[in-house]
Amino acid sequence: MQDISVIDLTPENIAEYGVCGYKDIKKHVELRRKIDWFTRYYPLGLRIKALVSEEGGYQGMLEYIPGRYAHRPVDADGYMFIHCIFVGFKKEFKGKGYASLLIDACIEEAKAAGMKGVAVVTRKGSFMAKKDIFVKKGFVPVDSAEPDFELLALKFDPDAADPRFRPEMEKNREKYPEGLVIFRSAQCPYSEKNVAAIMESAEKKYGLTPRLIEMESAESVQNSPCPFGTFCIMYNGEVISHHPISNGRFENIMDKMMK
User: Fold this and answer.
1) Which of 85, 127, 170, 188 has the highest Cβ tally under 10 A?
2) What is the DSSP code (8-state) at residue 36?
3) Minimal CA–CA distance to 238: which of 219, 214, 218, 256?
4) Span 48-62, pLDDT tens digits
């Protein structure tokens, strides 16, 4: 392995290292929102482990939290829940075993805390890790949600109840049968980017009055109508994006829907 360190981010040092590629607290509102959110949940067990190279700088992270406070629409109380994992802004840091190293650290912490296991949502599409690396660690699928989301668990207690997606998720979609609704949480800093542009396009190009729902608590995210949880766009009762997108992508989707 290259000369790389695993840094435990805290409310005191997170601004120094940044997160998810955002490094300038003065320039990036995404980072300021993330730091505020992190500081609020840190006392509840939220943790971020950052991979930092002496030469390459910030090269990845793993974020996890006790399942009671998971920012996904899941029931995972008693499990440690992984929100996200990413390694390698630069290619030379990919495929070196760093992601495995981070997951091992999370597993050991969950065991030390006497938890039932570790859980994570994976998918084949964008903005979430594929399941392969977790399967190699012994995780198994325990639930799924459309279009391509899977909930995986590594159980320390074989008799423990499996975590699951919230069964109310589909019914929660029925609460938004009309109009354009955007859901976001500060958990994902990418949920900040382009929302203003999307809302402006919705008004000026499509004559819509978009509704922005800020999900400010774990409970509100767990009641999200979308499996991704921390971001979602719905139009007339249909999910049109499960993850943050650019304004250009939004317009492409809307143009096709309005033909």
Assistant:
1) 188
2) H
3) 256
4) 998 887 666 667 889
